[in-house]
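Hey,
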Amino acid sequence: MTWSQWAFVGLVLAVVVARLVELSVARAHLLWARERGGVERGAGHYPVMVALHGALLVGAPLEVWLLDRPLVPVLAVVMLLLLACAHMLRWWCIRSLGRQWNTRVVVVPGLSLVAGGPYRYLRHPNYVAVVLEGVALPLVHGAWLTAALFTVANLVLLRVRVRVEEQALEELATPAPPPAARTPREQGAPG
């Protein structure tokens, strides 16, 4: 392997570390949400999402190594900048959502929608970061096949994910109905 291929593997490993940190944050947020009655929505697509993102992180370095993809310096610099922007956007999302951020879709009763940070400008900014990363990371070292396959598969997955998230956001935005009128007996009065 060339020095640039080793450097690319190092970059992918740095992204893996960032992903593990995010999963740790998400796990803590999930526990916090469940303690407050949080319920996960659309759990069926989550293993597919994990596998797809794992495939990106394995596929990009494998493509570079097995297909001997060349490093194109101008493309590498542009993609590194795009990758950095994607990570900054993701962490802006995480900080803006606070404990409501998660890699899963979790509805916590009584919480309000977040309208600050990047959510002031975009409905789903975290997914913009995911799309940018899915293109930029592999293209740092010319792994165009991985970038293309991930992007297509990710867009299919995002159609499902965004639909689930929109339903969850609608659930959060809709106030709970008032309790129905109860008879004195239902209220515990002697009768």
